[in-house]
Specification:
This is histidine kinase. Keywords: Kinase, Membrane, Phosphoprotein, Transferase, Transmembrane, Transmembrane helix. It catalyses: ATP + protein L-histidine = ADP + protein N-phospho-L-histidine. It comes from Altererythrobacter arenosus. There is one protein chain. About 1% of the residues have low confidence. Helices cover 63% and strands 11% of the residues. With 706 residues, it is an alpha+beta fold. The chain has 4 domains: 225 residues, Up-down Bundle (Rhopdopsin 7-helix transmembrane proteins), CATH 1.20.1070; 68 residues, no CATH class; 166 residues, Beta-Lactamase, CATH 3.30.450; 151 residues, Histidine kinase-like ATPase, C-terminal domain (Heat Shock Protein 90).
């Protein structure tokens, strides 16, 4: 539909110009009564507003094409050029910047050519060709004036000092909007051969809108007001501008193709529209484009990259959501930091007892293969001591150089998506580290990223430490309940054992039947032994029973352990090097029996289980390897060695914890490696006898010297 033939368009133009006249009248009154009387541009501002109001009124009364309205438009433009010149006087630069005056004089001269063209149009344009030529020349001159005005405005604002910019902000917005609208209006008219009907109808509304910042800029108090759109508004505005520019380009291309004429041009036009539409559907929703738009808007529209208030509110909302969407606390912790940098995925690492970093949880990054020991203790120490945010791109760039960042694990460098490592410090102690994936819009980390990530990392570390403290309190509470119950059980069994033992003694003295006495004695003594053994076993929660360590052949012990299950499952000693360790045989048997039984329970019928005995020169290790369902890193970290947490139906959840504590009490350590769907390997490592003797002799020598 042709807008020029729209019947309501003249009425809209009338209302728009009338609204502009009213708004300009109110604006001039405001400037005259509330404006700063000491400003150099006060008179020019009133003149610009007054002439604009008169032009709007005459356009509403007689139409925008009337001679009197066109003369008023020339007066209006001269007033706005004069206002632009007077704005330079607010900081004295109308005297210091001499090159401004010739440009202003040139603009005034060009605008003063409009009456001549107006006279030619109404008196001497006897043919349509002369009339069209006159209109084209007029539009071209108006375009030159608008371009010159925008250039002067840019020179004014770019060269102004910061206090002057505060004073000029609103006035330059009004002047810039005025010349930008005129440039667009006359450019479209020049290219189309006639004034655009819709833009001509809303010229009065544009004047009504632009008078508002002009009035605000006239007051010293109001000039301090600042328009600070939120980042969401800026991002959405930039997105709309980009979409609009794309649609405009597509329209121009289709119009250009249509000018070729013929069936081929029509076919090409339709094909271009289809291809452009498909490209739009695929391109606009992409994360890369959204990331680029956000980075661009932040870089050019805001002083800081981040809206700190918004980021803090979002961080606390993510942490305190309570797992409503099925995410664990660890997953929410990763996402809380990843959302700040628009990272699409992340990992949470935490130090183990040897201060090595291990995987605790991943968020949207399940495909990444992370070793059992994700990072060595040296990297953990560096993150803790220096609160160092590791830029992995910088680490990759320094490979092979003398100042390369040390201790960075190979799997981080080999994974191209790995972008940064953020330490989580609580009271100068490392409680974890977040590995962030690279954002969709590629960029480098800068000082603002580092500062914000450090602050948020400390806050997140406090939450993790608080959660660990709460878990420790719950565990202690469970232990307390367990100890109270065990105390009653031990008391009852102890009494029963005493009674049975006393009965056995009395039976030895008073029984008349020798055969009955013999059988009774055997039965009672066996019962007493079993009860005493049960009491002894119930008391094995601590290091008391493993104080007496002695040399133990670990290879022979492994064969004896496997022999117990020869008829129950396929358990094989695959490797048994001669290894002599210091251990308590009974405690070691108890701990490894439990681990081997777990391996059998996790394996399918007939699936082999292998036992290896190896040594690294300091420790002797007995490995139990199964091909069962495996365990997730989260369960290993948070559930395997937690008392009263069991994956078995009806399990008490204390066996793995007891096994680890018994091995620790003997000076060793229990390690575990597992992959879901592949299997598990437990490694019980104990000090070698020779190494222990060397260490003991060194300690004795030090004592003698002291």
């Amino acid at each position: 539909m042709n807008l020029a033939n729209w019947p309501f368009l003249p009425f809209i133009g009338f209302l728009g110009h009338l609204a502009g006249a009213i708004a300009c009248t109110i604006g001039v009154w405001w400037i005259a009564t509330h404006g700063d009387r000491n400003r150099h541009d006060r008179t020019a501002t009133i003149a610009a507003g007054l002439t604009t109001g008169i032009w709007c009124l005459l356009s509403a009364a007689f139409g925008p094409d009337a001679i009197i309205a066109e003369v008023a438009e020339i007066a209006r433009n001269l007033a706005w050029i004069f206002l632009l010149f007077r704005l330079f006087g607010n900081d004295g630069r109308d005297e210091s910047v001499r090159q401004v005056r010739p440009v202003v004089v040139a603009l005034l001269f060009v605008e003063c050519l409009q009456p001549v063209l107006l006279l030619v149009e109404h008196r001497f344009a006897i043919t349509p060709q002369i009339d069209a030529l006159t209109n084209q020349i007029s539009a071209a001159l108006r375009m030159l004036v608008a371009i010159g005005g925008l250039m002067l405005l840019h020179n004014l604002y770019a060269g102004a000092a910061k206090p002057s910019r505060e004073l000029l902000r609103w006035s330059t917005i009004a002047v810039g909007g005025f010349w930008a609208f005129d440039l667009n209006f006359f450019t479209v008219g020049y290219l189309g051969g006639q004034h655009p009907a819709l833009l001509e109808a809303i010229r009065g509304l544009a004047a009504a809108v632009l008078i508002l910042p002009l009035a605000l800029g006239s007051s010293a108090t109001a000039a301090g007001l600042q328009f600070r759109p939120s980042r969401a508004v800026a991002f959405q505005t930039l997105s709309l501008l980009l979409i609009g520019a794309y649609l405009l380009l597509m329209m121009l291309m289709t119009r250009s193709i249509a000018m070729l004429g013929g069936d081929f041009a029509r076919f090409t036009q339709v094909g271009f529209v289809v291809a452009a539409t498909i490209a739009t559907i695929l391109w606009l929703p992409s994360p890369r484009l959204r990331g680029w738009l956000k980075v661009t808007a932040t870089k050019h529209l805001f002083q800081h990259r981040y809206d700190y208030r918004q980021e803090w509110l979002r961080f606390n909302a993510t942490i305190g959501r309570g797992g409503a969407n099925g995410e664990s606390f660890e997953e929410r912790a990763i996402r809380a930091i990843a959302d700040i940098t628009d990272s699409p995925a992340g990992l949470l690492l935490a130090p183990n007892e040897e201060v090595e970093l291990e995987l605790v949880e991943h968020w949207k990054w399940p495909s990444l293969e992370v070793p059992a020991v994700a990072a060595c203790a040296a990297l953990s120490s560096m993150l803790e001591e220096q609160e160092f945010i590791l830029d992995l791109d910088e680490a990759r760039a320094r490979l092979g150089e003398e100042d390369q960042i040390p201790f960075v694990p190979a799997w981080m460098l080999d994974e191209p998506r790995a972008w940064a490592v953020v330490p989580l410090l609580h009271f100068e102690r490392l409680v974890g580290a977040i590995v962030l994936a690279r954002p969709a819009a590629h960029r480098s980390l800068d000082w603002e990223d580092f500062d914000l990530l450090r602050v948020v990392g400390r806050q997140l570390a406090s939450y993790l430490a608080e959660r660990a403290g709460q878990q420790a309190l719950m565990e202690a509470s469970r232990f307390d309940e367990f100890n109270r119950r065990i105390a009653f059980v031990m008391h009852d069994i102890k009494n029963l054992a005493s009674q049975v033992t006393l009965l056995a003694r009395n039976a030895e003295k008073h029984a008349d039947n020798p055969e009955f006495r013999a059988d009774m004695l055997v039965t009672l003594r066996n019962s007493g032994d079993k009860l005493n053994a049960l009491l002894k076993r119930l008391g094995r929660y601590g290091a008391g029973q493993v104080d007496a360590r002695e040399p133990l052949a670990l290879d022979a012990f492994a064969r004896d352990l496997v022999a117990k299950y020869a008829r129950q499952h396929s358990v094989t000693v695959a490797q048994a090097n001669p290894v002599l360790v210091l251990a308590n045989r009974e405690a070691l048997d108890q701990s490894l029996t439990h681990l081997l039984q777990n391996a059998i329970d996790a394996s399918a019928d007939g699936a082999p289980i292998y036992v290896n005995v190896v040594s690294d020169g300091t420790l002797g290790c007995l490995e139990i390897i199964d091909s069962g369902g495996g365990m997730s890193p989260q369960f290993i970290r948070n559930g395997l060695f937690k008392p009263f947490v069991s994956s078995k139906d009806g399990g008490f959840g204390i066996g793995a914890f007891e096994a680890r504590e018994l091995i620790r009490a003997m000076g060793g350590r229990l390690k575990v490696e597992s992959r879901e769907g592949i299997g598990t390997r437990f490694m019980a490592c104990l000090p070698l006898e020779a190494a222990a003797q060397i260490q003991a002799s060194g300690t004795n020598n030090d004592s003698e010297v002291a």
